[in-house]
Design goal:
By secondary structure, the protein is α/β, with parallel strands linked by helices. The chain has two domains: 141 residues, Alpha-Beta Complex (Quinone Oxidoreductase, Chain A, domain 1); 143 residues, 3-Layer(aba) Sandwich (Rossmann fold). The chain is built from nine helices and 16 strands. The strands form three sheets. Strands 3, 4, 5, 6, 7, 15 and 16 form a seven-stranded mixed beta sheet that branches. A seven-stranded mixed beta sheet has the order 11-10-9-8-12-13-14, with helices on both faces. Helix 7 crosses helix 8. The longest helix has 21 residues. The protein is elongated, with a radius of gyration of 21 Å. The two termini are 23 Å apart. The relative contact order is 0.14.
């Protein structure tokens, strides 16, 4: 029987210079890494290349770490060692670390408070690929909007990662679903409960939403797109409606006439998971753990992903910069 090969030396991807692409060097990690009290050491299997990471490595993010630095915020792997006072994790546990700078390394020291155990049946890859989109949908619909069964939910950008997760979660929670997505230069508006749909030009979205939703309107609008979509959706809100401001994927940051909100008793509600992490860390990890549970149960479908060897960072950067609809993961296992 052949002997087990020795483990590869631990290494990190070190950003030496911001840019597009950034200057990334593969460098050995000082060994051994040891956790302090309240920390864990993780053997990283994979890490996500997120939009935030992409901006940060170009020097375009609001937080600009001093160089050289090890980038990356979300990693998944196995606990190697735990520090004093850590009771919810043990060596060998499959985990995700979220919001911990330095994720682009084959070993990572992370605060135990930001490390979430993975439930059985959920792979590290599926978990780490789904953090941004699925946690955003959960935080928005459950925490910020307080979605109740029977409410009407309109999802803009329904074909995107956040939109798909929001539709699945809202359906699970008993909502009546409506959606908007682009289709060949036009907008496809769907009534999911009745199985009906209509197609309108972007300039006719306001009228299309009137036809789709009728006089009752939507109790909650999930808006990750902004631009020309937001004002028509705000006009389609029901009394006491909530418009979830998630992002501006369509381009411009829109303005909403305040009298629309006043007359409807409606609310604009910001949904920012990064702010939740900074201001309510325990809530962040609790909500992410619930998202992982829903993924493991099959309620939510994981985001699609494709892996690139971490040592070949140029390939991963190129894949991200020419998106094909899949999350790019850095694979530290090869």
């Amino acid at each position: 029987m052949s002997a087990t090969p020795p483990p590869l030396p631990a290494y990190a991807l070190v950003c030496r210079e911001y840019g597009n692409p950034p200057q990334i060097a593969v460098e050995a990690l000082a060994q051994p890494l040891a956790p302090a009290a309240g920390e864990v050491v993780i053997d990283v299997a994979c890490a996500a290349l997120n939009f935030t990471d992409h901006l940060m490595m170009q020097g375009r993010y609001q937080d600009k770490p001093a160089l050289p630095c090890v980038p990356g915020l979300d990693a998944a792997g196995t606990v190697r060692a735990v520090g004093a006072g850590v009771t919810h994790l043990k060596s060998g546990d499959a985990v995700v670390s979220s919001g911990v700078v330095g994720a682009y390394a084959s070993q990572l020291v992370a605060p135990a408070s930001r490390v979430i155990p993975l439930p059985p049946g959920l792979s590290p890859q599926d978990a780490v690929a789904s953090i941004n989109s699925h946690l955003t949908a959960y935080h928005g619909l459950v925490d910020r909007a307080g979605l109740k069964a029977g409410e009407r939910v309109l999802v803009l950008g329904a074909s995107g990662a956040v939109g798909r997760a929001a539709l699945q979660l809202a359906a699970h929670l008993g909502a009546e679903l409506f959606s908007v997505e682009r289709a060949a230069g036009e907008l496809l508006l769907r009534d999911h409960a009745r199985g009906s749909a209509l197609t309108v030009a972007p300039a006719a979205l306001r009228q299309g939403l009137k036809e789709l939703l009728g006089p009752r309107g939507a109790d909650i609008v999930v808006d990750p797109v902004g631009d020309l979509y937001t004002e028509p959706a705000a006009r389609a809100l029901a009394w006491r409606g909530r418009l979830l401001v998630i992002g501006f994927a369509a381009g411009a940051i829109p303005s909403v006439p305040m009298n629309l909100l006043l007359l409807k008793g409606a609310s604009l509600v910001g949904v920012y998971c990064g702010g939740l992490l900074v201001n309510e860390e325990a809530q962040f990890t609790a909500q992410l753990a619930r998202v992982f549970g829903l993924l493991a149960e099959g309620v939510l479908t994981p985001s699609t992903w494709e892996a690139a060897p971490a040592r070949d960072f140029a390939d991963a950067w190129q894949r991200f910069s020419a998106p094909r609809g899949a999350k790019v993961l850095l694979d530290f296992g090869r």
